[in-house]
Amino acid sequence: MKLKRTVIAAALAALAGAANAQVSDGIIKIGVMNDMSGLYADIAGPGSVVAAKMAVDDFGAAKKGMKVEVVGADHQNKPDIGSSIANQWYDVDKVDAIFDVPTSSVALAVSEITRKKGKAFLVSGAATSDLSGKACSPNTIHWTYDTWMLANGTGTAIVKTGGDTWFFLTADYAFGHALERDTETAVLKNGGKVLGKVRHPFPGQDFSSFLLQAQASKAKIIGLANAGGDTINSIKQAAEFGIVKGGQNLAGLLVFITDIHSLGLQTAQGLIFTESFYWDLNDGTRAWSKRFAAANGGKYPSMVQAGVYSSVLHYLKAIEAAKTDDGTKVIAQMKKMPTDDPLFGKGSIRRDGRKIHPAYLVEVKKPSESKGPYDYYKIRATIPADQAFRPEKDGGCNL
Amino acid sequence: MDTIFGVPTQALFGQLLIGLINGSFYALLSLGLAVIFGLLNIINFTHGAQYMMGAFVAYFLANKAGLGYWWSLVLVPLVVGFTGVIIERLMLSKLYKLDHLYGLLLTFGLALIIQGLFRNQYGTSGLPYAMPAELAGGRNLGFMFLPNYRAWVIVASLAVCIGTWFVIEKTKLGSYLRAATENPALVQAFGINVPRMITLTYGFGVALAAFAGVMAAPIYQVSPQMGADLIIVVFAVVVIGGMGSIMGSIVTGFALGLLEGLTKVFYPEASNTVIFVIMAIVLMVKPAGLFGAQK
């Protein structure tokens, strides 16, 4: 009996092997690298690993005879740590593709390593638009959002409704600089003015000093070019120092639903920002998000986690179509195929590695308008896919 | 308007005041560390985690027991201080005969475990803690808008710091404590229960951290990481002030808060590092710290 079972298992394994002749070592290994314990852990963190595993299940990898394994690691928001994990994963652990990687400085480093080693890199968490601009790579796809999308969505909307003088509070690293640059461009293009900027160390804790400088500038809008815990504390302390009561408004340039959950609607109400995913968009997003929350301790997905799901799904489809897990070839295949999933709808991937889909300008509800936890956004405008991202010709990518 | 190096003097006053507020936290936390190191010779790396626990217990009291901020100010130091007493009795007390390094490793490990447990349970974006209604709002000082709560932070922390200094340096109880660290055997011979005194001292140091945590809860998010980021700066403060020097840690805490405030105006990018630059310089010139006694 036991022998028979072994023989069947061996035969099945041989079959699976035959079907995936081009898959290196017979296993597709997906590495989800992000901040597992610091200020971005709720945006990405273990939730992104959950999302990746859901994508593997929904793709039906096991049924199709593909062996897919998901591993996770914590880059602690440090480029040196991220680089050494990437090297270790590619060289020793036989990881085929790296996903997520919030923190732009780390993502830029991992993108270079991935290009050198001919693997695949699908960025969901990082924001800098340079990933599909001057730092673009044939091995990298930038999936969920970028600083240009945020700046264009939020910056343009605010300038057009009268917020024409700006002061920036910027996280002092690649992401903050890119977000500030792209927003400044959007503000100037729409006829606004930038009165000043201050760069705060990352991560920060006390922003009152910087907020006072912003207050003194008399700008109508204080643009928060930071993220996660930094944005939360900035908003909270701005309320404390009477900045909004004094007639100035805050523009959260990168805000996630997890931040709003943490701030509470009382503090966050009225905030306007841009997202590329919200769980309550349609039946598809609602159904998926409820499944996700069930697997993620009740926490609803951020757009980064949704992006990890969507990118893993498309990556596996591309491997199935191209019959190889060679990084460069799979990325090329991914660009050839249109994307389609319940979270971001139909979309495509441009030659410069920019994934294209609609973006949403959202406003945080008043406490009285919300039906309960995570019922936080009103969709103010939908920015169509062809306008949501920087035109390919303006990015400076030479692919 | 008058300017100093291109910065309006009015703005500078505001920044100095903010520096003083941050200095209040440095002073409160470094004071606890100094008390523990001065009397127990333990480098308490759990301090940041205990500060975080203070904020969390305040959050629990508000949300599970309906007890507000003022209750928390009294109850939280007692509750968290008691956990300190347990740690001291069960673990630290076994290490006094060994090198400093063992205490450091134990407390560091405990800090990682405590932070990990909270992170696992509550995530990292933090929980909101409401400002007490009595201290909401603020006043316009002409050169800046000062939230009432921040003014309270300075007053409360100065009071606690000076009170602690007074008890340790000027009262009979304080003299027992200081004597017990110099020569425990002799003090014991006078009929004073030295181990109990040391346990309570550790509990008190921890309570100070928890008190700072309650003070911080309405300003910052209550998050598992809140202490981890702060503790390194606070250690630098203690080193600059002189390990174990009570007055040193208070004065240095406030002074470095001011200095950091100034850096945020003139060169914000360096505001995270300036304290460590000072630390390096002080260690080169005066290895025992500004107020430390050369041993």
Describe the protein in words.
The complex is a heterodimer of chains A (399) and B (295). With 399 residues, chain A is α/β, with parallel strands linked by helices. Chain A has helices spanning 2-19, 45-59, 79-91, 104-117, 147-160, 174-189, 208-216, 229-240, 257-263, 265-268, 283-295, 303-322, 327-336, 385-388; strands at residues 27-34, 67-74, 97-100, 120-123, 140-142, 165-171, 193-200, 221-225, 249-252, 272-275, 339-341, 345-349, 355-356, 359-364, 377-383. In chain A, helix 2 runs parallel beside helix 12. Chain A is globular, with a radius of gyration of 21 Å. Chain B is mainly α. Chain B has one domain: ABC transporter involved in vitamin B12 uptake, BtuC. Chain B is 70% helix and 3% strand. The longest helix of chain B is centred in the N-terminal third of the chain and has 32 residues, at 9-40.
Write the SSE topology.
The complex is a heterodimer of chains A (about 400) and B (about 300).
Chain A: H1 2-19, E1 27-34, H2 45-59, E2 67-74, H3 79-91, E3 97-100, H4 104-117, E4 120-123, E5 140-142, H5 147-160, E6 165-171, H6 174-189, E7 193-200, H7 208-216, E8 221-225, H8 229-240, E9 249-252, H9 257-263, H10 265-268, E10 272-275, H11 283-295, H12 303-322, H13 327-336, E11 339-341, E12 345-349, E13 355-356, E14 359-364, E15 377-383, H14 385-388
Parallel strand pairs in A: 1-2, 1-3, 3-4, 4-5, 6-7, 6-8, 8-9
Antiparallel strand pairs in A: 10-14, 11-12, 12-13, 14-15
Helix pairs in contact in A: 2-12, 3-4, 5-6, 8-9, 12-13
Chain B: E1 3-4, E2 7-8, H1 9-40, H2 47-64, H3 69-90, H4 100-122, E3 138-140, E4 145-147, H5 148-170, H6 172-182, H7 184-189, H8 194-216, H9 226-241, H10 246-266, H11 274-285
Antiparallel strand pairs in B: 1-2, 3-4
Helix pairs in contact in B: 1-5, 1-8, 1-9, 1-10, 2-3, 2-4, 2-8, 2-9, 3-8, 5-6, 9-10, 9-11
